[in-house]
């Protein structure tokens, strides 16, 4: 697996590698924005459609720094994290998250999502995505409660001391509703774009039924769960209380999630954005089984569960806010207690329109978004470098580029989108890449230098801006 950090450590080597075969002297501006991509023969996957998109969009962007950042970030998943091969006659794709040598179900779907519109133009890219659908099925069948996996089944887990210890092939076993939702999201989108049903084989069917069974189990209607999780750690957010089962809940039909998409433990077990994501995933499954797989019984089971969860969210996951009216809570417990906040990771409350669950004009979403971007959200930070979403995962002074990106992707205001692009341009600390987080007053103080999800998500934002608000990118300085 190619490690981008090897290229980043030695700037002179990087310049030499990327300029190999050239010999052309670069101007001051060109020297400042030398591509940070690995040399073509060092990239882990290549797509002609992606390269054509880079050329098209990059040449349109007038701001040289923003253009450079796009070229670095958009292909980062393909350049550095993709392991594709044929196994037993089927495509198989394993995608690591970046500087952690493991594949998250969530991250891997998000990492390839910006490439999905191109798969009808590039058969090689299409096959790679199909391989990821197949790999995710293997992961679910291995352990539906796990969030991250290894390709090498003999690799010892970094979290081997967790209890219960992860199975062979599992990196860690944090139960997050969204992990399973992303498996459905990828398979459904692949089908919707290509019309190819060949990936819906017996193993895929088993995985989908296991996903629904797991959702039902974690409704905990009898107050029981087979799930346990404990970790030796000094971080409160690294494990749920009460032997990993979380705080008490009133079983009102919502699904318990012991962890957030940040991999932090939930405070109240009913994580509202993830429950709404599950509603969407269940309806996608219902449609596939009803219209393509000829199984009305399972389709009806998915639809019924989706309706039950959605009704419970509206009753138990919303509340009148003192300043904003009826909005979504981030977490709830079914007893009437709520936690009002949001986290930069997706699914988040602000991402509900990005995911397609809400339209940006829907009243409850619009009010919730207004709250989330205000000082009443305890995890929305304003600093001298930028303002935006943080996360308990990185402390009380760090902003996530991902949060700024999602703000832009859920906005219909060109000025707000331009503001977000400006903040992202001003906080990459000269690296040309997105990071997990940065100090609100000092962007050079950042976490995770190689975070492929954030990189490709930034690429998606630039492409969406190019399509919908091209005048923003026509300015010499964003």
From TrEMBL:
It comes from the Bacteria. Coiled coil: none annotated. GO terms for biological process: carbohydrate metabolic process. Pfam families: Glyco_hydro_125. This is Metal-independent alpha-mannosidase.
